[in-house]
Amino acid sequence: YDKAAQQLKTALSRDANDGLSWFFLGVSHLRLADKNEAIRCAYKAVRCLGTASLGHDLAGRACMQLGDYLQAVKAFEKAVQLNPNDTKAKNHLLLALYAVGNTKLAYRNAKERIVQTPTDLVPRALIALQNKGQMRRFVRQVRAFVGEDDFQMLEASLIFGELGLANEAAELLLAVCVEAVPENERSPLPIYYLAYFASLQKDQTLVSAKAEAVAEKARAYLNQAAGIYKDFIFPSRPEAVEVFKYAIEENP
């Protein structure tokens, strides 16, 4: 991402009104954990022709990672307003509403999204977080009608994780891809993701004992995944690279 950022800065030195370059520069900064710079680039993209919706969505993602959920809701609402067909922005808005505590509206909108796009897992996953009964129903639905259910759940969990909802991402993966699968049929992929999401729960505000418990949980998942030799390990999207970088660094 450092190299990409440098190349994008070069492109912008030639054309400061290149909205896509501002957008991807912001994405690069977000991947490098420079969230404030990502927001600055996002609003540069907003002011360029054709990238306003992308810019607002990127700003919302950065705000979610900063824990500024109210500002994230506003950014995602603007992104959806500018591009009502942007499924990703709509899902981001659902999760931001959930994070800010407006769960009633989040669940209501999620139900509407399911009617509009029945195969989209994110709205269904959000509703599953309401209670154990909804989670059991979600598990049955996913394993009944979703092809390559593990892969689709990994994709959905990354959306939750990228927006700072690591606990929720882990809860969903554990229910669908681990607990619902016989031990001898489990793939190591979801367990590597569980380790990564556990590591994201570390926070400077945690007391040392709790922080160590979180780290131990992550190590336990890594050790469990390392003992499964069912299939090859590969990232399906750029966000997944961080999962496996973490696994290799922590358990080479």
UniProtKB/TrEMBL annotation:
PROSITE patterns according to UniProt: TPR
UniProt cross-references to SMART domains, sorted A to Z: TPR (SM00028)
Signal peptide limits: none
Entry-linked InterPro entries: TPR-like_helical_dom_sf, TPR_2, TPR_rpt, Ycf3/AcsC/BcsC/TPR_MFPF
One Pfam family it belongs to: TPR_2
Entry keyword annotation includes Cell membrane: no
Keywords: Repeat, TPR repeat
PANTHER family, sorted: CELLULOSE SYNTHASE OPERON PROTEIN C, TPR REPEAT-CONTAINING PROTEIN MJ0263
Protein name: Uncharacterized protein
